[in-house]
Design brief:
Structural class: mainly alpha
Number of strands: 0
Radius of gyration: 25 Å
Number of domains: 2
Helix content: 55-70%
Distance between the termini: 32 Å
Order of helices and strands: HHHHHHHHH
Oligomer: single chain
């Protein structure tokens, strides 16, 4: 979100939403834009599809936010095609060697060299895929590990629990934006609040959030004078 967006456009929102918007925009302007867009979609009761459109925005927010915290979908310059191409030569040699044979070991009971080469190449591919194209759960674990505000990392059981919460929130928005489920406005707003609190706890210390509330109270009092 460009800094030019006026505070007045968010004046009617609760202080925590304003604070989250600011924190997201400071991390990356596009995140603030996506958050604002999702809130505006939600606030348009004249649009019969407002909940689905808002859910789309919040899902995009989660995915773009994860990318901004350096949990990449892929490494620049790397792609799956190159990795698959690397398998072709060892696979071709193995196929030629094994055609007409019912065993993958030689006369001494040792694995055929070409089989071993293929297995090595495939293991490298699988390792690469897990690191560069992680499962949603492992990506969530990595994301939350990097966002953990405390100096010490949480126990693995708590990390997994937080990752599951992140996954459940993402799944709700994904299913809602694709119309796989039709939640009520009240339920949708509860999931939005869950996401906002999840992000606030990791982006803004609670003491800072208290100051945000105080500033909002003082500003409102000044306006009413």
């Amino acid at each position: 979100m460009p800094n030019a967006v006026a505070e007045s456009s968010f004046f009617s929102l609760p202080p925590e939403k304003v604070a989250l918007h600011r924190a997201l925009a400071e991390r990356e302007p596009k995140l603030g834009q996506i958050y604002e867009g999702a809130l505006r979609a939600l606030a348009d009761p004249a649009n019969p599809d407002c909940l689905s459109l808002a859910a789309h925005g919040f899902r995009e927010l989660m995915e773009k936010f994860a990318r901004s915290v350096a949990v990449p979908l892929r490494v620049p310059g790397e792609n799956l095609k190159n990795k698959v191409q690397a398998l072709k030569k060892p696979y071709g040699r193995m196929k030629k060697k094994c055609d007409g044979h019912s065993t993958i070991v030689d006369g001494k009971g040792q694995p055929i060299k070409e089989i071993a080469q293929l297995m090595e190449a495939m293991e490298a591919l699988f390792k690469w895929a897990e690191e560069i194209l992680p499962s949603r759960k492992s990506a969530a674990m990595k994301l939350l590990e990097r966002l953990e505000p405390s100096a010490r990392q949480l126990p693995s059981a708590l990390q997994e629990s937080n990752a599951q919460i992140w996954e459940k929130i993402h799944n709700f928005f994904e299913q809602t934006c694709h119309h796989s489920m039709e939640p009520s406005r009240d339920e949708t707003e509860k999931w939005i609040t869950a996401l906002e609190h999840f992000l606030l706890d990791r982006l803004i210390p609670r003491t800072t959030r208290d100051f945000v509330r105080i500033d909002a109270i003082l500003l409102e009092a000044k306006r009413n004078d």
